[in-house]
Each structure stands twice: as C-alpha cells, then as structure tokens.
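Hey L., structure's done. Input below.
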Amino acid sequence: MLLAPRYLVFKVLLPFIARMAIFVSVHIARKVHIALHAEPYNAPRLVIRMLEYREFPVRTALTYILFSPSVAFVMLVIVKVIEGSLLPLTLLEHHGLLGFGALAATFSLLVTGYIVDRLQRKDILMFLSALIPSIVGLLGSMLGFPNDYSPQIETALVISSFACLAFLMVSWTVQLNRTVVVKFRGKVNAAFLALALVAFLIYYLLSAIGIVLMGNTLLLPAVISFVAVITAAILRPWKLDQAPLAVQGSVMKYFGPMALVLAAHMLWFFVVKLRFQAEGYGTLSQTVGFGIFEVGILIVGVVGAGLLADFLGRKRAFSTLILLMGLLTIFGSAMYESFFVEPSLPLDIGLLVFERFIEGYMLGLCLLLIWSELGSAKTKGLRLSFVWFFFLGYMALFWALDLEATVFGFTFLVPEELTLIGGNVAVFLALIALYMIGPLPQIIGREIEMKELAFDFDDKQVRRTVDAFVGTDEFASIRSQLDVLDAGAELSEISDKDMSDILGDDFVKKLPLRQVPGIGPNLEKKLRRGGYKSAAQLSGETPKRLAEKIDGLGLARARKIINDARNTVKKTVKPTRKKNNS
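Output:
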C-alpha cells in the first residue's frame, strides 16, 4: 500500500529538507564569517598560481556542471509561465507574473555584477542563487497549487527564478574564469549548457505527455536541482585554486560585431516569418513540425561552439559564427524561395536545422564565454551584467515582435515592407561584422594579469608545479607552466605577446647561468649536463631535485643557488618591463 502524500511530505521530505538547509546554512555562515574577517580583497599580494594544466580538470568541471539542473528547473518555470501552464491560473494572470519576473531579472542584472566583483566568496552566491528557487519550488509543490500561502508562494517562485538565474549565471561564470584556464573553459561551458537543455527537454516532454512524477510537474525537477547543488557542495569548490585570469583587450571589439550579428538574425527571422505567412503557411517551425525537439539542434550547436572555441580560440570561433550567419542570410533566402516554387519538406527541414544550429552556436559561444575573459579581472561581473542586459533587451524586443504584444497602448508589429529590404540589410550587416573581426583580440592559450611583472617564488607552489608537470628532462616547460599573477589593487593586463616581449624567447642569453652568484665554470658545466640552460630554469626548481640532479651539490648550497637565481630573474625582469612600458 502506498504511503499517503501528506505523510511523505511532513514525515519524510520536510525533515530531510530541514536537515539539509541547516547543514548548508551553517556552512555558509561559517564561510561568511571567514570572508568578513579575512584580509581585504584589495590588499596587494603577489601570488603564483599553477592553473595551466595539461589534462582536462574532470573534478573541477563536474563541480560546475552540477549547477545545470538548477538552470533547467528555472528554464522550465519560465517557459511554463510564458505558455500559461505553470499554475492553475489564467493566461493573463501568468503574464502578470511574467512581468514581475522580468522586472526582477532586470533589477538583478543591474546589481549582480557590482556585487559579484566585490564579493570575495563568489561560491556562496552561486549556492544561494541555485538553492532558493528549488527550495521555493519544493515547498510549493509539496503544499500543492493553490495552497494556504497563495498567491505569495507562486509569486515568490517566479520572481526567485528570474532573479536567482541572473545571480547564478554571473557568479558561476566569474568563478569559472578564476579556476579554469581558457583552453578548457569552452568545454565546461558546453557541457553545462548542454546538460541544462537536455534536462529541460526531458522535464518538458514528461509534462507534455502527461507523465507527472512525485505528484507535481515541478517536484521532481526541484528535487533533482536541490540534490545536485548539495552534491556540488560535497565536492568543496571553495577549495579550488583561484587567480584573477584575464586577457588583454576590449570587450567592445567583440560586442560591436555581436550586435550586428544579432540584428542580422532578427531581420532574417522576421523576413522568413512574413514571407511564409504571405504564401499561406505558418512559421518555419510550424511548417516543419519539430516542436520542442528543436532544442536538440540547439544542443548540437552549443557543443560545437564550446569545442571549437577551445581548439581554435575565441576569435576563430566567433568569425565562424559570422560566416554561418552570412551563409544563412545569403543562401537561406534562395532556399525558402525555392520552397515556394516547389514545396519540399526536406528543404524546409534543412533550413530550420541550419537556423537552430546557428542559434545554439551563438548561445554556446557568446553567452558565457568572451565577455568575462577580456579586460580587467576586477570588473568581470560588471561587464558580464551589462552585456547580458543588452541581450535581455534584445530578447524582450524579439518576443514582443513575435507575439505582437501591446505595451502601454503600443503594439509591436513587424512592417510587411520588411520583406522587400530586410534580407539585403541582413546580408549587409553580416558583411560589416565580418569586416570588423580583423583586429579582434585573440583569446587562446594562457592568460596573465598583473600590476608589475615580478617573481615572488613560493616553494610550495614551485614544488607542486615541478612534481606535477616536470619530468626528468623537461625543465624547459617550467616557464610555460607557471602563471605569474598580481592580485593587487591596481591591475593592468598583459598578453602572451607582452610576456614574450618582456623576457624574450631566448632565456639563455638574457638569463645565463653564469649571471647567478656562486656559479663558476665547473658548476656551470655540471648544470648544463643536468639539463639546465638558464637562471629562469633554476628559479623554478626545488632544492631537493637540484641536489639530486647535480653530483656533489649539497642541499644547503642548492637552496642558496636557487634563491640567487630567483633574485637574478627579478633584477632582469623589472628593468625590461619598465623599458617595454616606456
């Protein structure tokens, strides 16, 4: 005999949620206490972070991917509100809740970047913004809709979904940029977004075909979201090594072409819609009839963008997006005109698949990548908020035109004359965007951000680097595996090219072994036989390994040689840096 739902709610689920909430609250309170009594964020300090690793960081990636069920839950809530099927309310009442949610998202985007940039423990904000909507959804689902607390709990569910989504995505993205280097970040983003879309698709399909698990449409997604966040907490993401990584360059160089691509996409969409309606068809989606399964094409585009961004770099991936958009605007028009002459479903399917793939590609590349990777590390969140605020405005305009909404007496309508020039203007915008990508800053490889290039060597960090990445004769890789980062009050950016300009490609000439005090001709020969060619290589070594490598060299003398080598590197680098700056 099945247990009564009320018994399950009050005897099983509520006690479990209470215990987990107490556990998370105590942990967060302890972290807040530590953060409040810690050294101020702007206190100058110089650190070396070993963040450029050769293998994909599986555990770190899993920590971030576990937040995708929370995004899927919020997506389900938002889509159900737009459709008017989330709650036992009328469509007009749902749209009223949608208005409150849109205001909450707008306000959240305006403040979240400012908060994230000044919050030392960004992981706390990640967990709170992921937990709040799922907890509200759990309570509402277990009590049933409507309940004794209606309409407050329904309003809280919608507002928390919109607001917490903004806080979660900004804090998630900035934290990812501090813990995962650029060559693996695209894959993590792709896995995160793809899993969120897959989970949303499953939830939506279960609801659409009438399969309701655990007694309510939202209960299962809320439980999965809650459990996934608790699992992420068990992995302790606050223990990850962090550094303010960034790449030199301006976000506006990417933002300008991106705005043109979005404008070309909007023109293309509405030109196609008007042409299909003029010929007596529905929209392109209605003609093909894929419905919600179009999300699967988006997922393919998201994964493709993440992989290409990591393998070829953001600039190449972005130029590919502009090329795809240009192909769609040029050849897409010919495809649907051919359909009107001789209707063919495969032709329409190909057109729809191409369009949805580009949209998924755009989502995977331009939502979480690029904007937080360029510029000062101190303003990552603020830049991301402003860019997403623009995206929010674009989506609001897109939906208003698509739904022909009326706001304050003004009806958003697409003029029919757009079919005459809209396609040509879309092609023109894509060509301008293609012209503008020439000077775009490249985002690939290793990021370095610092106030002044300096080497303050930490023996623990050096030992970890050497033990993890340096083999018997791999001393030349020490420089490529060390990121020198300054988290001081006034950060300025330096690119990989600047790093090469400072030190040069030939370390042996700029930092010879004989320049280190205490190294004579005989010791120099021994060091060269051991694989050491410059003071830079010695500076990244540990005393124990050096003593073991060089015959007749004691531990104390090895320690002194390494310290002298590090001082030599400092004296050589600082004047070179000042010379290059001048």
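The chain has three domains: 56-239, 252-436, 452-487+504-581. The chain is about 70% helix and 5% strand.

-- N.
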